[in-house]
What we know:
By secondary structure, the chain is α+β, with helices and mostly antiparallel strands. α12 (430-442) packs across α15 (476-491) and α13 (445-452) packs across α15. It has three domains: 5-299, no CATH class; 309-422, no CATH class; 430-491, Arc Repressor Mutant, subunit A, CATH 1.10.10. The mean pLDDT is 92. Helix content is 39%, strand content 20%.
Amino acid sequence: MKEGWEAVIGLEVHAQLRTESKIFCGCSTAFGDEPNANTCPVCLGLPGALPVLNRRVVEYAAQAALALGLRINTESIFSRKNYFYPDLPKGYQISQYDRPFSEHGAVEAPTTERDEAGHPQEWRLKHFGITRAHIEEDAGKSVHDIGDPGKSYVNLNRSGTPLLEIVSEPDFRSSWEAYDYVGFLRRTLQYIGVCDGNMEEGSLRCDANVSVRRTGAEKFGTKAEIKNLNSLRFLQRAIDYEIDRQIALIEAGGEVVQETRLWNEREAKTYSMRSKEDAHDYRYFPEPDLPPLEVAAEWVETVRAGLPELPEARRRRFIGEYGLSVDDAFTLTGQRELADYYEAVVKASGNSRAAANWVLSELLRELKSGGIDITGSKVRAEHLGALIKLIEDSTISGKIAKDVFADMVATGKAPEEIVREKGLVQITDLGAIEKIVAEVIAANPKQLEAYRAGKTALLGFFVGQVMKASGGKANPQAVNEILKAHLEAEGR
Length: 492
């Protein structure tokens, strides 16, 4: 950011709650079905069709609110938010306004500044306030990239899917803080299972309200809203562009106007979409077909007690309990299934450090190469733990273990089965290793002479020859010790 300026950023995150049916009717929320197949009189807003609230939506909204430190109101009101848009069939959206489901919360999210290449530097925790998280229905979707280029189409399958809109305080001062916060929200909602967080499919979308002011100023500048960002990277790039645009406009003598803008990724810039509405423009009034939503305090506490360990708490525990670095703990807790997998490997192997090394290096590399995530891995956690134990008890060497692991990735077999089938048990018998060492030394007189003349780096050559002769099965530590003893004896 240009020196002498400060950005002020607030975020509105729209998370689609992971229910099988819509918020006020029984239509499916499945993504990718035939356009307009998942619709009914209720989600189409036809006369006489009455909405009935989906209980699961309330349960998921409560879990999310509690996970984000929000207070759940025992009574909230649904309202009609009136505006015209082609993919809004009723001409209004059922949302919440002055009495939301939950409000007044905060999170401590890990964030970091980045270098010019976007690589994270030192992690730190920062407090971000959350104004409210209210329940609402989604609109449909206008489609502009199919058929006649001069026409737009409307798909109403998404109309009526349940959303939780999470509105932050204007606590962000850089695009990377916004990036990290939304990533934190996404992980948290995925951890508790209320949203799949798939931004490409629109399950998680973000609007960013961006303004700038002179460094040290207290008054906020005029904000512009960047609408419907469905990628963390798009969010970061759009905010940076908008900050630079506003600063350049003010310095040139212009004024920022309150408006809604859209991000064009191909051109890497924002465009004006419409003037920004205020609350009165939407003509909010209570939804007459829905009574107030009431929840008991005892029910809220039951929901709280059922929450799983959250990602930030788990990250701190991994650092303290398993001795992991901040970066390693951050990676391992980035996905609940991966964190569960790692802990299962630790339990099976009894070695948290070795478990982290294998999961972070060998396993994640194979998963990335295969284009799958941890849930699709053929390597079971208990099998990877067993492989680590085979190394530790000297049944196999670390080198052989990598070959065994490759077979585990391909077949899903247990490491003991692979070792037995391929005869890979490590040679630990010292007499057998002595015999191989003697044969290797006798077969390489020139190298022996050079070693005796002071070229001790040739030890690596002899180790390689012994391992080759043993089919890679000789215990490396024993090989080194016996070779040194023999070579030194020969030298004398």
